[in-house]
Amino acid sequence: MAIGTTHQYDDILGFSRPVSSHPHMPRPERAKIFSPFAALRGHGDAVLAMQKNRCSKIALEDIALEQINTALCALRKHDKIEVTYFNYDPGPDGTGGIAEGRYLTAQGEILMLDTVYRKLRISSDQSAVGWVDIKFEDIFSL
């Protein structure tokens, strides 16, 4: 700018800062305004609970595998069962890390017993689709 030209705010530059009629807010109270909030109440606790329940798959001994196999051979469609199985879950970050998933227990009626693809489908109220598919090799107990 050339000397002698006026700035846009020259007329107010000499004024003092306006004084608010509201009382001054203490710093800790001001900090609360800008602190993050939990939009989903309890979400953080649920994520932590899922991380705590995750574990590595247990390698079963031959005797236990034989017992599961014998029990599977005796099952028929529409039988009511309770099965504990390993559910692969890579976790919140998707990498899995050391823990590969978690063990779940489902109770219900056998809807399908597929010996070719080695898969069991049982009805389940806990599932959004109303059933759960379980691979034979993921079964921990019947």
Describe this structure in words.
The protein is built from 3 helices and 5 strands. It has a domain at 77-141. Strand 3 and strand 4 (131-135) form a beta hairpin. It is rod-shaped and about 95 Å long. The mean pLDDT is 81. A 5-stranded antiparallel beta sheet has the order 4-3-2-1-5, with no helix packed on it. By secondary structure, the protein is α+β, with helices and mostly antiparallel strands. The N and C termini lie far apart (86 Å).
Compact overview of the structure:
This protein has 142 residues and is an alpha+beta fold.
How is the topology of this model organized?
Layout: H1 27-34, H2 43-53, H3 62-74, E1 80-88, E2 101-114, E3 119-123, E4 131-135, E5 139-141
Antiparallel strand pairs: 1-2, 1-5, 2-3, 3-4
- Please state the overall shape, judged from the principal axes of the Cα atoms: rod-shaped
Number of strands: 5
Strand content: 25-35%
Q: Calculate the terminal CA-CA distance, rounded to whole Å.
A: 86 Å
Q: How many helices does DSSP assign?
A: 3
Strand line-up across the major sheet: 4-3-2-1-5
Q: Structural class of the secondary elements?
A: alpha+beta
The stretches of 5 or more residues where confidence is low (pLDDT under 50) are: none
Secondary-structure element order, N to C: HHHEEEEE
Radius of gyration: 31 Å
Report helical residue fraction. Answer: 10-25%
Main pleated sheet: 5 strands, antiparallel
Would you tell me the overall average pLDDT? 81
